[in-house]
Amino acid sequence: MSQHLFFGFRDEGFDVVCMEIRQVNAVLSAMLNKTDKNDARGIAQVLRIGWFSPVHMKSRAIHDRLTDAITEVNGIADINNDALDIAMMSKSTGT
Predict the structure, then answer these.
(1) What is the pLDDT, as a whole number, of residue 82?
(2) CA of 29: how far to CAs of 26, 37, 48, in Å?
(3) How many angstroms separate the CA atoms of 33 and 42, rounded?
(4) What pLDDT score was predicted for residue 88?
(5) 56 SS3 class
(6) CB atoms within 10 A of CB 63
(7) pLDDT tens string 6-50
(8) 2: helix, strand or coil
(9) Of 49, 50, 48, 43, which Cα lies nearest the Cα of 27?
């Protein structure tokens, strides 16, 4: 989701930064009154001051290739598991 938003806003001409969530969370957790409005103010303050590490966003092509590779590996694992199940069933039935 963040990748879709990042590239969508960037393509429309907005300045976009992805921040390390642990750093932002540490700043926001120090606030006494936790509300959505105060969280937004805290995030804006983090951006103004520069208390964040920008996170590299992979390109869409790289992301798509990684997703395809993971899907392929999961498919191979499913085939292997099915073959193992068939082997176990035939061993238990004695055929």
Answers:
(1) 64
(2) 5, 14, 18
(3) 11
(4) 62
(5) coil
(6) 14
(7) 888 888 999 888 888 888 888 889 888 889 999 999 999 998 998
(8) helix
(9) 43
